[in-house]
Predict the 3D structure of the following.
Amino acid sequence: MQTELDTLAEVARVPGDPSDRPSLIQPSRTTSPRISLSQAAIRTSAPSITNLMRMALENPGIVSLAAGFVDQQTLPVDVASRAVGALMADPVEGRRSLQYGTTIGLPELRERLVGRLEGSQGVSPGTYREAIARTVVTTGSAQLIYLVCEALLDPGDIVLVESPTYFVFLGPVETRGARGIRVPIDEGGLRIDALEDAFTRLQAEGQLDRVKLVYTIPEHANPTGISLAADRRRPLVDLVRRWSATAGRRIFLLEDAAYHGLSYGETEPRSLWSLDPDGETVILARTFSKTFSPGVKIGYGILPKGLVEPILRLKGNHDFGSANLNQQLLERVLATGDYDRHVDDLRRLYGRKRDIFLGALDATMGKFGGDVHWTRPHGGLFVWMTLPEGVDTGFEGAFFANCLKQGVLYVPGEYAFAPEPGPAPRNHMRLSFGVPGEPELIEGARRLSAALETSLSP
Ligand SMILES: Cc1ncc(COP(=O)(O)O)c(C=O)c1O
């Protein structure tokens, strides 16, 4: 699967059949037989934003507001070094860490994760104890998300997704041959009325039995930075449960909480998972990539009972289990409190970057009036900007070319829309304030504004 990181980090990828790729082996005179790819591989399109990284490399001095990475300077080298040192200082522990673990993941870590969830949701210790057996550690939340798609989706099945959504999620949906259908959001996140309408319409079309999954990012979403309003959370879980009952078959709600914890000021509302009374509907996906280190690449899911075994069987085929050393490392930094101290630092740093970036956008883009507007996130790493309808933010459009001339990059918004219904809007962009330094954020906003000015001038 192509993660956002892969997508951005890969500089040159030869499109099409792998047999077309340049080879170091001398070509033989006889043509080698063609590769007959699986339908899944054929369906999977090339990553759409690969060339952003190449452009960044080819244009020194460019300000990249495109990469959704964490700030390189924040990566917790000292904390990680202490934790690995402590693990290796004890030969028994050290060897245990360097051995394979289990497919479901390290028991102490899973227990701790559920305990921390109890703390954050304000319930008494032991309330969620039973969920430890349903907690699966994965290689990033990307793997959990992929496994969920693999376990549930056949060609023609339907996933209802926020519009816009995390564009990488659309990859596994496509690979499975499933249909991604958009459901509008507003400033309070996924619109419950619009989701109800989508279910009603699909029922009228005789398609309800194809709906398998609703996908949402309720905290500081990628790409909008918007969070699902507290008063929509229970209604959302109830709605999905009600339509499950109507369909006579389980429809799951995938809660992708990748930015959970990165909140700047406001307390995060209760998770959808904690509002699912019988634990049958919500799949909670979390990760330590944003709050600790994407290089450690550890995430986890808490799954409804019936999904645990199928997902573990599939995960067994992927990798037997996620990197044991990395799980031990995380368990240690959670136990010592180093992790929580690190997240506190991140919140301060990103909160300040968010303020600087929003201030710079106000100062430079405010002059365009109401046709140009952007989100004001309370957490996460992203701002979503809407330009006048006539401005095409795609790679081929004049605005992107103007931005390149000015020396600033963004992710065109069109990639964040599921294919149905109909063509995606093209006048949005995702701006990330995670990676650039503070002066670059100010300069990036100025360059965007200059590019837009050129695009709008007659
Ligand atoms: C919304 C969202 N979900 C999931 C992921 C996957 O992260 P990881 O696999 O590193 O845990 C990301 C990464 O950018 C993301 O933005």
Observations:
- The CA atoms of residues 172 and 273 lie 22 Å apart.
- The radius of gyration is 22 Å.
